[in-house]
UniProtKB/TrEMBL annotation:
GO terms for molecular function: polyamine oxidase activity. This is Amine oxidase domain-containing protein. Keywords: Cytoplasm, FAD, Flavoprotein, Oxidoreductase. The keyword Cytoplasm applies. Pfam families: Amino_oxidase. Residues 1-23 are annotated as: Disordered. InterPro entries: Amino_oxidase (IPR002937), FAD/NAD-bd_sf (IPR036188), Flavin_monoamine_oxidase (IPR050281). The gene is Dvir\GJ10135. It comes from the Eukaryota. Its cofactor is FAD.
């Protein structure tokens, strides 16, 4: 993950309401709480949820119109199933993929920024197929300037030396997962291991000033890594699990029309009436049994009194053999891939009064939302192993700060200014005190590790963790003033202008996301992600699951990425499209007798 750029998703206005958002963005610096929010977004391309109580029957209900939900819907359509609906809490599709206009007819991505890797990346393939990106990617010249708080510019040779050493340290962290090495004693996190290597590296530096300068560069790179990983501090990230993330080759690709342009081909084939926006889900009754009055939710406690392993039997995936044994009693229609088994209808209640009855549900609700709602959202509650995995995994906060200017002020050759904050005074502050509002109010901005130039008049800053959460509480004017002060100090230029517009994302505050993306903290494992992906079966006899889970938090190798979300949606659809019975394998032989056939497959 060393050469990945931060891939911050962010709060989400509607794409169709870009004109309205343009006005909002222009007025953002004058708004008291000027955060880009999505909870009250305008209606998008689909129908909006009715406020009247009504019931709808559907074969497959997809919860969430982000990348995982759109992927699942497209895969169903490609395999002949159009009996599905998507319910989306926001007023638009796209989830953590969203853009808004910010002056000069330019769109900026509040959410996902880059296609991470080319080889084997389905998002890149879709982009190429629809002409959204050139096959030949020519990177722009990238000149980074690193400066201290007093304006001292670090020689590029030192910056390059420290960066190369840092990348080496990070790759060694990856190797623990890949090669099953044992780390040094009492080192459990990525941050601890990298700092351990930093101390060894700097022990040979004799000049105290040079040593301190190199330490500041390492500190800056570690702050950058928190934005890439999605955490507050790299000491939170499990050392043995870092390498579980699989990095695709090919670098980071920017779509010329913005990442949100990928939504058009994914939404084009889905009927508008199949997407219901502004329809937040309140309750999912996933395990129900027939009674004299109809289908009722099973009481897990009463069922467990009769069977000690009831929870296990309804959550295990049926084996091929048991499915074959049950095949005789299950009607199947080979001519239609949408003829799903009728066992156990799932009932989904929405906040606007709508009720859906579905044979199957594909749940793409983000991990950040599940962390806050999983105990009340599912009836009965999720199996204990799923609840524990939801709580074990981390869903960090990463936010963006966009600064729009009337005129350029940075040198045309400079593309990024790295901020080398002197953290020596902070080192003496306890972790408990760093979490207080008194501390954050005076130091939140020191988590901004750089300002990158998107255009000559548009800068982008990143901030993560508790500092990002605190920033979300500030008015945009306060953020703009602090950023101006930072730039004037680090560039030693009192004439750096104030931005005409400042737009900040508020990823943590958003009701329907609750953070940025998934990572594996100390004590959690890749198995926790695999647990989240496990489907749930309403009964031990069910051949297909009642609920299938999808989203970046369910892909054990590509968590935190858009392509991970896409692939998880496709996998979820495949669960429901699979045949009830295993395919029969017929082996033909050229010989006329069994012995001749056996000779043909004999092992030497």
């Amino acid at each position: 993950m060393a050469d990945k750029e931060p891939k911050t998703p962010a709060p989400s206005p509607t794409e169709e309401g870009l004109a309205d958002m343009a006005a909002t963005a222009a007025a953002a610096s004058a708004a008291a709480a000027g955060r880009v929010a999505d909870d009250g977004a305008a209606a998008s391309s689909g129908g909006t949820g009715s406020t009247q109580s009504s019931s709808t029957n559907v074969k497959v209900l997809i919860i969430g119109a982000g990348m995982a939900g759109l992927s699942a819907a497209n895969h169903l359509l490609q395999n002949g199933c159009d009996d599905f609906l998507i319910v989306e809490a926001r007023g638009r599709v796209g989830g953590r993929i969203v853009s808004i206009p910010l002056g000069n007819n330019q769109k900026v991505e509040l959410g996902a920024n880059w296609i991470h890797g080319v080889l084997g990346n389905p998002i890149f393939e879709i982009a190429v197929q629809h002409g959204l990106v050139s096959v030949v990617n020519v990177p722009k010249p990238h000149k980074v300037v690193a400066t201290t708080e007093d304006g001292h510019q670090v020689p590029f040779s030192i910056l390059q030396e420290i960066y190369e050493a840092y990348v080496c340290f990070l790759r060694r962290c990856d190797e623990y997962f890949l090669c099953q090495y044992s780390p040094p004693p009492d080192i459990n996190s990525v941050g601890e291991h990298i700092n351990y290597e930093i101390q060894i590296y700097l022990s040979s530096v004799q000049d105290p000033k040079e040593k301190r300068l190199k330490q500041l560069i390492f500190n800056c790179l570690l702050k950058r890594e928190t934005c890439i990983t999605g955490c507050h501090n790299m000491n939170e990230v499990d050392l043995l699990e870092l390498g579980s993330y699989t990095e695709l080759q090919g670098g980071n690709i920017v779509l010329p029309a913005g990442y949100s342009s990928i939504l058009r081909p994914l939404s084009a084939q889905i009927a508008k009436e199949s997407i219901m926006t502004k329809c937040p889900v309140k309750k999912i009754h996933w395990k129900r049994k027939k009674t004299f009055t109809g289908l009722e939710t099973v009481d897990e406690n009463s069922e467990n009194e009769d069977s000690d392993d009831s929870q296990k039997t309804v959550t295990e995936v049926p084996t091929a053999a048991s499915a074959a044994l049950r095949g005789a009693s299950v009607e199947s229609n080979a001519s239609s891939n949408c003829d799903y088994a009728p066992e156990g209808s799932v009932r989904v209640d929405c906040e606007n009064g709508r009720v859906f009855h579905a044979a199957h549900v594909i749940c793409t609700i983000p991990l950040g939302v599940l962390k806050h709602t999983h105990r009340t959202l599912f009836d009965p509650e999720l199996p204990q192993y799923k609840q524990e995995s939801i709580e074990n995994l981390m869903f960090g906060t990463v936010d963006k700060i966009f600064l729009v200017y009337d005129r350029p002020f940075l040198s045309a050759a400079i593309s990024e200014v790295m901020l080398l904050w002197d953290d020596e005074k902070q080192d003496a502050v306890s972790e408990e005190d760093r979490a207080t509002e008194a501390y954050l109010s005076k130091n939140w901005f020191k988590k901004i590790y750089s300002f990158a130039k998107i255009t000559d008049t548009l800068l982008l800053g990143w901030v993560s963790g508790r500092e990002a959460e605190y920033m979300e509480t500030l008015p945009n004017e306060a953020v703009a003033e602090k950023c101006t002060e930072i730039l004037r100090n680090f560039l030693q230029d009192p004439y750096v202008p104030k931005p005409k517009t400042c737009v900040c994302t508020s990823w943590k505050s958003q009701t329907y996301t609750g953070g940025a993306y998934t990572s594996i903290p100390v004590g959690a494992t890749q198995e926790d992600i695999e647990n989240l992906a496990q489907p749930l079966y309403a009964t031990p006899q069910a051949t297909k699951p009642a609920i299938v889970f999808a989203g970046e938090h369910t892909h054990s190798s590509f968590y935190s990425t858009v392509h991970g979300a896409y692939l998880s949606g496709r996998t979820a659809a495949q669960y429901l499209l699979a045949n009830d019975e295993p395919d029969e394998i017929i082996m033909e032989s050229d010989g006329s007798d069994l012995s001749a056939w056996m000779q043909g497959i004999a092992l030497d």
